[in-house]
UniProtKB/TrEMBL annotation:
One of its GO terms (molecular function) is ADP binding. The lineage of its organism: Eukaryota, Viridiplantae, Streptophyta, Embryophyta, Tracheophyta. Residues 178-347 form the NB-ARC domain. InterPro entries: Apaf_helical, NB-ARC, P-loop_NTPase, Rx_N. Residues 10-103 form the Disease resistance N-terminal domain. It comes from Trifolium pratense. This is NBS-LRR resistance protein. Keywords: ATP-binding, Nucleotide-binding, Plant defense, Repeat. GO terms for biological process: defense response.
Length: 388
């Protein structure tokens, strides 16, 4: 059963990594500019999302149902093949970018795509046909879900818990450079806009550690001393100016605000933040509407010079609308960091990482590599191993 659970979590983590990759701006950009079949990739994405929806149910049912177990095992193979295919596309994208950079470095600094020339032309045809086969293979699994009686667990994303400013630093891995870079932005005396607020946008795919990094900064000793006032608000997908304004007020004053009068709340926030050097965190922003953003921040533009806002987001456009400092794009953790995180959660320390048991270490490292640099995957798998 333990193996089945780990396998299941593994599969979910891999599918999530694939979905994030398919939605990433670099990937979408590459597909658009090449002759790769975009509708086919969209179909692949939809099919993976659909399969992800029934995976929880399949994981539960496989324990008593051999056919479901076989379905899940076969699906695992197909998902790993899909992973190889997408890695191949990412590799080609990188190679294409590098070759073009080297060829046209001086003559034309604008990145041009050389995909119509050989060998990319043939390669794209090959990838398109592999993608078609992959899509049909995965759709086949989706078609069988009714026969197996698997059910979708819908609206998984919208039930994500709201974040808070409290984190657990004892299991923190890496992110030292990122922390230092952002810390310099927070503590610098330079103001980047005509008003007094400097905005740092932390950008990255789901589960990469944006909130965790923001918590680390928010609770740092130097930050505590530098700012007169701090507040944390989780914005989330259903953007609501009233809720965010209220959250900021509640975070500052440590009391509940009952009013539903937005104007009153905004005036109060304006009064409280005026002439104060503040740090506000707006965690998990999805709304990229410029007017909504301006509206949200307008009550606190009279803060003291040096006031800062940290925005965390998965969306490039949100970061572009909000940022005044250079956008901080988080990269995946290294395999070594994933391995450290996985072992910390599996054993409560990373002693396991340095153990003499080479077989265990070899397996652990393989699992860590499959996490694709996503801390959430390393943590989840470590947690599952711990309980077994
Ligand atoms: N550097 C890290 N070291 C240890 N654990 C981490 C690290 N980064 C993230 N985590 C863990 O991974 C999980 C996901 O991280 P987090 O919530 O910060 O991701 P996120 O990028 O904010 O995701 P989302 O876009 O879904 O909000 C958390 O449980 C966190 O504890
Ligand atoms: Mg987050």
């Amino acid at each position: 059963m333990a193996a089945a659970m780990i396998g299941g979590a593994f599969l979910s983590a891999t599918v999530q990594t694939l979905l994030d990759k398919l939605a990433s701006p670099e990937f979408v950009d590459y597909i658009k500019k090449t002759k790769l079949n975009e509708p086919l990739l969209m179909k692949l994405r939809t099919t993976l999302q659909y399969l992800q929806g029934v995976m929880d149910d399949a994981e539960e049912k496989q324990i008593n149902n051999r056919i479901v177990k076989q379905w899940l095992d076969d699906l695992k193979d197909a998902v790993f093949d899909a992973e190889d295919l997408l890695n191949q596309i990412s590799y080609d994208s990188l190679r294409c970018k590098m070759e073009n950079t080297q060829v046209g470095k001086k003559a034309n600094p604008v990145w041009k795509w050389n995909i119509f020339s050989s060998p990319f032309k043939n390669l794209n045809g090959e990838i398109n046909s592999q993608m078609k086969i992959m899509c049909e293979r995965l759709q086949n699994f989706a078609q069988h879900k009714d026969i197996l009686g698997l059910q979708t667990k819908s609206a998984r994303v919208s039930h994500r818990p709201h974040s808070s400013s409290v984190g657990n630093e004892s299991v923190m891995v890496g992110r030292k450079n990122e922390k230092e870079t952002i810390m310099n932005m927070l503590l610098s005396q330079k103001d980047t806009t005509s008003n007094n607020i400097g905005v740092v946008a932390i950008l990255g795919m789901g589960g990469l550690g944006k909130t965790t990094l923001a918590q680390l900064l928010y609770n740092d000793e130097k930050v505590q001393q530098h700012f007169d006032m701090k507040a944390w608000a989780c914005v989330s997908e259903d953007f609501d100016t009233m809720r965010v304004t209220k959250s900021l007020l509640e975070s500052i004053t440590s009391k509940t605000w009952e009013s539903t009068n937005l104007d009153f709340l905004r005036v109060e926030l304006k009064k409280i933040s005026r002439e104060k050097r503040f740090l506000f965190v707006l965690d998990d922003m999805w709304n990229d509407n410029y007017n909504d953003w301006e509206d949200l921040v307008s009550p606190f533009i009279d803060g003291k010079p040096g006031s800062r806002v940290i925005v965390t987001t998965r969306q490039q456009k949100v970061a572009e609308v909000a940022h005044t400092f250079p956008i901080q794009k988080l990269e995946p953790l290294s395999n070594e960091e994933c391995w450290s995180l996985l072992s910390k959660h599996a054993l409560g320390s990373d002693e396991f990482r340095h153990s003499k048991n080479t077989t265990l270490e070899e397996i652990g490292r393989k699992i860590a590599k499959k996490c694709g640099g996503l801390p959430i995957a390393a943590k989840t798998l470590g947690g599952l191993l711990r309980s077994k």
